[in-house]
Specification:
- This protein has 218 residues and is α/β, with parallel strands linked by helices.
- 44% of the residues lie in helices and 22% in strands.
- The chain has eight helices and seven strands; from the N terminus they run ααααβαβαββαβαββ.
- Strands 3-2-1-4-5-7-6 form a seven-stranded mixed sheet, sandwiched between helices.
- β6 (194-201) and β7 (210-217) form a beta hairpin.
- α1 runs parallel beside α3, α2 (23-43) runs antiparallel to α6 (108-120) and α3 packs across α5.
- The radius of gyration is 16 Å and the shape is globular.
- The termini are far apart.
Length: 218
């Protein structure tokens, strides 16, 4: 990672939460950046590089970490769906060291990328890769996250199935996405009852609105 981008990353992490600005967290995020940059031309992981990759993806994924962390019980199990390039799963894992985190990715090449990157980041003890479609996942989780994944209408029954009672779903959304349509899907769902909340959050050095759509399984 180039020096100027490393300094940009450190500044952004410190703005989100100064307690996260440790050598271990920063080292992991730098390694994630390097791995994405290395494999992106071949794997098409994310449509960004350099400054955009740092701000619009890594810092964007990290920005709501305090919201996620404060809502969970001690040492929860988290599943990140459609992990692909490790966004947000590996970014969150860098800052949530004590958590048991699973990265769910059905595509073989991307699952392979995730396995290699988990090892390179030194997180094989706390992070595992599940190469399955969401419909095939059998374990249950306290927290579910995803970003740029499928719409609720296609996955809500599976979310219900793998989320424990009292668990939460954190769906990263940009301001342009149709959150109201997603909420209508939730309200009309015939399975368990989900309460919902939309939380705005800021990303350092990004002049754009970001929202977290949170579902709580009653």
């Amino acid at each position: 990672m180039e020096k100027n981008l490393s300094e940009l990353l450190e500044k952004g992490v410190s703005s989100i939460d100064s307690t996260l600005c440790t050598d271990k967290v920063l080292s992991r995020l730098r390694r994630l950046y390097d791995e994405i940059s290395l494999f992106n031309p071949s794997y098409g992981l994310v449509n960004a590089e350099g400054r955009d990759l740092v701000i619009r993806h890594i810092l964007d994924c990290l920005a709501p970490v305090l919201i996620i962390r404060s809502s969970a019980k001690e040492n929860p199990r988290l599943a990140d769906l459609g992990s692909g390039s490790g966004l947000p799963g590996l970014v969150l894992a860098s800052a949530l060291e004590a958590w048991d985190i699973s990265l769910v990715e059905r595509m073989g090449r991307r699952a392979g990328f995730l396995r290699n990157t988990v090892a390179a980041m030194g997180m094989s003890q706390s992070v595992k890769v599940i190469q399955k479609d969401l419909s095939e996942v059998q374990d249950c989780y306290d927290i579910i996250t995803f970003r740029a994944f499928r719409q609720f209408k296609d996955i809500i029954s599976n979310l219900d199935r793998i989320l424990v009672p009292g668990g939460k779903v954190f769906a990263y959304k940009s301001s342009e996405e149709n959150i109201q349509e997603e909420l209508e899907t939730v309200s009309s769902y015939k399975g368990c009852r989900f309460s919902s909340e939309v939380i705005d959050y800021d990303v350092p050095m990004l002049d754009a609105k970001r929202r977290m759509l949170v579902l709580f399984k009653d």
